[in-house]
């Protein structure tokens, strides 16, 4: 097993002490993602919407990052289809010390986290009475690192659709 292997555990309140000092960088996107996991949003999303949130640790127990999978109720197809419950990645982030690491792309932490989230989304989808055709997410169009990462995992930008504060929607086809 590689020293870069990550281990996923479902996030719970008791993990908050281990997150002291966790930071996805002091940038607009980084601060937003840090606040989501350090503040009340993550626990509220779990309690109110059944979102699953994982912390990813390395072999020495350091928290490398986090990710989440949940559902949203959006009109689908956007913008004016009927209201549908869809699988969705609310948030993910990697601590600044681990972004772009390790250099070996095969073990890149972003890749391990995305693989986990997509596998979990497919597994949740198999349990649904009405499977979701796509896994969706919102991304700030200026967040180049995130857009490149998602594109590597076959997420496509929906042309001409923005939501909230100008965020773009990306979709990844799930197994049916
Ligand atoms: C988005 C995030 C999870 C990606 O993790 P990462 O470790 O930086 O990912 P990678 O090293 O695999 O980089 C992804 C791609 O972006 C590129 N990249 C990294 N930083 C970049 C930057 N500042 N500007 C432009 N491209 C950048 C990388 O070169 C790579 O491109 P490639 O696939 O062509 O090689 C991480 O940067 C992060 O936590 N950011 C802050 C929180 C955030 O934005 N979360 C997502 C939205 S909620």
UniProtKB/TrEMBL annotation:
Q: Which SUPFAM superfamilies match?
A: Acyl-CoA N-acyltransferases (Nat) (SSF55729)
* InterPro entries per record: Acyl_CoA_acyltransferase, GNAT_dom
Task: Could you list this entry's UniProt keywords, alphabetically sorted.
Answer: Transferase
Q: Which positions fall inside the N-acetyltransferase domain?
A: 2-175
PROSITE patterns assigned to the protein according to its UniProt record, in alphabetical order: GNAT (PS51186)
Q: Which GO terms describe its molecular function?
A: acyltransferase activity, transferring groups other than amino-acyl groups
Q: What is this protein called?
A: Protein containing GCN5-related N-acetyltransferase domain protein
